[in-house]
Amino acid sequence: SCLENQCFTEFVFLSGNQFPPVAAQDLQFVLKAGYLEKRRKDHSFLGFEWQKRWCAISKTVFYYYGSDKDKQQKGEFALEGYTIRMNNSLRKDAKKDCCFEISAPDKRIYQFTAATPKEAEEWVQQVQFVIQDTGSNAIPEEEEEEYDDVGQANSEPIDDSIYEEVKGIVEFFLTL
């Protein structure tokens, strides 16, 4: 209804979120989910640079929550147009090999730490899978195809007698 659309528009305007609120447990088609540490946008604030977040990839969207019990996401972003890579320069501690970042031109960079390097690699692989899949929706440019069978489909001579019949019928109606 119009009222729902208006509410959704107001939600987007007020929160800056692109998608409506969804409980962590209600996400559909989840490809990967689990706890990660997410680097704060303003990581000088209060000194808490990394925050534990429950993250999930649902369809082509990356969601993050305070916990897997949250009724609405703290944020989300569509993965289309982003790239992902491991980045061991984000931390100086023992978890430096567990870090990855998701970035796109002119968009916010999202930085995460997994519990282990193996877990980080799994996240990178899943996100790459989604990114490649969203990119493949474009129609690929195919090489020019050559058709050498034109004119060979029906090699029988055309029966011209049908044209004579039509001509005769038309002349008949014209004389009425």
From TrEMBL:
Domain PH: 29-132
Keywords of this entry: Cytoplasm, Phosphoprotein
One annotated Gene Ontology cellular component of this protein: plasma membrane
Keyword Signal attached: no
Database matches in InterPro entries: PH-like_dom_sf, PH_domain, SKAP_fam
Broad class of the protein's primary localization: cytoplasm
Source taxon at top rank: Eukaryota
Localization per Swiss-Prot or TrEMBL: Cytoplasm
Protein name in the entry: PH domain-containing protein
